Amino acid sequence: MNVREWALPVYTILIQLAVGAVFVLWVIRALAMRKFDPGEIDRITRNPIMVIFFTVLVAMVGSHFHLSKPFHSFYAVLNFSTSWLSREVFFTMIFFLLLLALWLLSQYKKEKRFLITLCGWAAIFFGFITVYAMARIYMLPTQVAWNSSLVVISFLISTILMGAITIACLFMLDLKFSEIQKEDDIDTRVQVTKDSLIGLVLLTFFGALASIAVTFYQIFLLGQGNAISLTSLQLLLGLYYPVLILRLICIIIAPLWMSLGIYQMRKSGFAPQGLMIPIYLSSLLVLIGEIIGRFLFYATHIRLGV
Q1: Cβ contact 133:250 at 8 Å
Q2: According to a count of CB atoms within 10 Å of the terminal CB, is the N or C end of the chain lower?
């Protein structure tokens, strides 16, 4: 795959990561506000919001490398009523604008807490619609390996999996940044991070197991299909079998490594800052696994007809 071909999978991965991250962050925010001062919680979420926003910005800019005429991309929204591609572009733009509004509100209108909350949930809503529209693009009769609701399920699972591990990573990064800046709310940040880590590792486990289950079910369905499906299966279990095994290993090891670190933290009583290396490496493994999975998604499909 050349740069132009890689632009599309990178775009889909980054958008799903951003949607999952803002969803997980907003759930943590809602729960933490019951226990801690809302103002402190909003300060904790400010930097992750900024990172998520720029992730979407990079994804949108990068997606244009897939187009032969990038400056004509705005024409894609003109077929909204009939095209899932147009709907994906439109909802991505809405998601991006809501994240921009959320970032600006969190930075310059901190007292508008209700508006910030509403804007966050609206971004999540349109984010998941974007992921759904993204998946529906591939459900075509001419693409036998893709023409299944498993594509939607797989994309949603990836969204949750990457979102959970990303927020764990961002919380570690935020703790380190706060220590360097000598913030006065470092104790709250530490406690919120510790309270969140169990839920995050459980989400990561769920996402990893669900992703593996979908992979094996997809293999089963391909084995029950026609000659085109069997050709895709032969590619997956033949030429790309080592790549498939590598993806499964990454997806399995990531939550195990993360949970081992959290177990040691709770048993020994050390601060969550000590989890930076296992959480960073777990995040890297999940990202590698998703990149490999997206490569296999594109590499093993066989077109039927023209």
Answers
A1: no
A2: C
Q: What's the rounded Cα separation, in Å, for the pair 271 and 181?
A: 18
Q: Are residues 190 and 128 in the same domain?
A: no
pTM of the predicted model, to two decimals?
A: 0.90
Name the residue with tokens 């804007």.
Answer: 119
Q: How far is CA 151 from the centre of its chain?
A: 15
Q: Which of 104, 137, 170 is the C-terminal boundary of a domain? A: 137
Distance in angstroms (rounded) separating the CA atoms of residues 251 and 206: 11
Helix 113-136 and helix 38-63, axial crossing angle in degrees, nearest 10? 30
**Residues 202, 260, 162, 39, Cα dihedral to 10°:** 70
Residue 93, token pair as written in the block: 């733009």
Exposed/middle/buried for residue 245 (C-beta within 10 Å: 0-12, 13-18, 19+): exposed
Q: Which residue range is the domain that position 241 belongs to?
A: 185-306
- Are 83 and 214 members of one domain? no
Q: Comparing C-alpha atoms, which of 11, 20, 14, 28 is closest to residue 159?
A: 20
Question: Is there a single domain that holds both residue 9 and residue 125?
Answer: yes
Rounded to 5 degrees, φ, ψ at 303 are -80, 140
- Is 92 inside any structural domain? yes
Q: Based on C-alpha coordinates, what's the Rg of the chain?
A: 20
Mention every residue, 6+ apart, whose C-beta is less than 8 A from residue 20. 158, 159, 160, 161, 162, 163, 164, 166
